Amino acid sequence: MTRVDFYLLKDASAPTRLELACKLAEKAGTRGQQVFVYSTERPMLRELDERLWNFRACSFVAHQLLPENHISSLADNDPVLLSSSEPGHKCQLLINLDNSVPSFFSRFERTLEIVNKEPNIEESGRVRYRFYQERGYPLAHHNL
């Protein structure tokens, strides 16, 4: 069963949320896990793509921003894939930056939800939390 981790940020800053996504993707990548970052907001994915190139001076996170409507495949062999579409193959870790629960989340070993104090993000985070809780998924909280 998919384990769901909620990372709760104390501010409403979109850049802080993306910075945490970079750190989590980097950490998973160094552990050899393949990461799928999902959002239907293409501008956010493009910004995350830029941040992954230079968020930390002495590190590099190999990643690929997949084209719109591209179903990922084993040929997409970067350890971190950014997409607004459903994954075509299994990855270990999903970082969900969308405001809804992706229909495919249960294909992953773990799903990470990053929630900040921005009202829309916070409220949709609560809705997603209830969704997972009502279905009995194991939940963890990380207050940052």
List the SSEs and their pairings:
Elements: E1 3-8, H1 14-30, E2 35-38, H2 42-54, E3 63-65, E4 80-83, E5 93-96, E6 110-115, H3 119-134, E7 139-143
Parallel strand pairs: 1-6, 1-7, 2-4, 2-5, 3-4, 5-6
Description:
- By secondary structure, this protein is an alpha/beta fold.
- The chain has one domain: Rossmann fold (3-Layer(aba) Sandwich).
- Helices cover 32% and strands 22% of the residues.
- Strands 3-4-2-5-6-1-7 form a seven-stranded parallel sheet, with helices on both faces.
- The mean pLDDT is 89.
List keywords for this structure.
Rossmann fold; seven-stranded parallel beta sheet; alpha/beta; 144 residues; 22% strand
Short summary:
By secondary structure, the protein is α/β, with parallel strands linked by helices. The chain is built from 3 helices and 7 strands, in the order E-H-E-H-E-E-E-E-H-E.
